[in-house]
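Appendix B, Record 12. Input sequence as logged:
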Amino acid sequence: MRIALAQFNPLVGDLAGNLDLILAAARDARAAGADVLVTPELALTGYPPEDLLLRPAFLKDCAAAIGRLIDEVDGITLVIGHPYASGDERFNAATVIRDGNVLGRYEKMLLPNDAVFDEVRYFTPGAAPLVFEQDGTRVGVLICEDIWEVEPAAAAHDEGAELLLVLNASPYHKAKQSTRHQVLAQRVEETGVPAVYVNLVGGQDELVFDGHSFAMNRDCRVVAELPAFEAALAVVEFADGDLQPGTLAPAPDELESVYRALVLGVRDYIGKNRFPGVLLGLSGGIDSALTLAVACDALGADKVHAVMMPSRYTADISVDDSREMIARLGCQYSEIEIWPIYETFMAGLAPAFAGTQPDTSEENLQSRIRGTLLMAMSNKSGRLVLTTGNKSEMTTGYATLYGDMAGGYAVLKDVAKTLVYRLSEWRNRSNAFGGGAVIPERIITRPPSAELRPDQVDQDSLPPYEVLDAILAAYVEENVSKAEIVARGYSEADVNRVVGLLKVNEYKRRQAPVGPRVTHRAFGRDWRMPITNRWAS
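Logged structural output:
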């Protein structure tokens, strides 16, 4: 038996377009000699369809699309992921179709309701395994979360399954693939049944799906693996009671995988929402430089417009380095001097500011002028503004509402400052996207500064970034308490300051644009803290 693994990039809600992708995969799989085609979880709708699932008309259209697959797919067994409605209940389902017949329908047993998942809101859990016969082999079907616990795989094994097909919509975060390997190996070891794991690929709002589908034999060895972050179809053979060796696509290391996740997130957010291109403010600093590199790699330089908006506090080298980076990348570039605009604002505010000393009000005004200019250019061109703030800034609130936070997509929202530096260095030495070193070295080596007042650097008012980011990772991503972080060797003053800034700036994060998730816990759908909150630990 030959099994085709189809990892493709659906568009949530585009049933007609997704149906065409599935039919094309069926044709390609059949041409490659496959007997079975396995698609990802909810392949018909894209993942996650969220409250579309609460609309009866949407579910009716899904049922009609499945009917079309039943009528049109022949010569191959199709395992298709889709929502299924029965009365008032909805199920996360997989239907097995062959030559106009439905061989069975599986309903996902375990519904994740943590991290980025809300499946309990939408679905009823299934209660029974599904095992069908293909060419004399008993084949079990599971969906994503079902492999993370013992029972569903065990139930399929008890029904006589000799091979498991697992449909997944498993979003990316750092080191996720090794975790998938470990979890599936546990199920294979427990049951003695080899398994095929098929995953979605593509960006959907803040989630990025990395594909990386694979096949694991009875010895818990990965015998075939598809590429990461791109659509692909591969065929693996099941013979003599086991999956046979196939092609193993090279696996990217951590820095490459994070960078490619950012690229895919930008490409799909812009493309799937039909924006003609992007705008971003270029400052001569590391964050906007990395954002610009990602944008050009994702969309092509012709769809990227960078805008330098210097003030009297902007260093000459910031302008020089920005121009150098533009020369290397070849994207559109503008310079708009903001100081005359700033002086006009200050003249208007003079009565309101009378008797006060300069503070962050004047600094933030510069940022808000820049945000206003970018949004005006966005309105005129239709291009989306990319914001350039990183996760460290989002943690501490070192970002200006309606200023540098103004925009539609936050490329580095889940990338801490120390990782920004590592990714920039990786991009400069990598040939994965061509172009060689696109970020001028001085941008990487200079002390970071917002350049909103004379001689300003970030570390004037923050702990060193390696300290800040370690505290951030422990508190936000690991859920470690302040006391435990101090016990790890960090000063109580630094921990209290970072966590205090985190809490008082929740209202800012709630207003921030979405951005691609690359860690285990991002400031998005898996971070739901109350804005009004006095818990102090």
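The longest strand covers residues 77-86.
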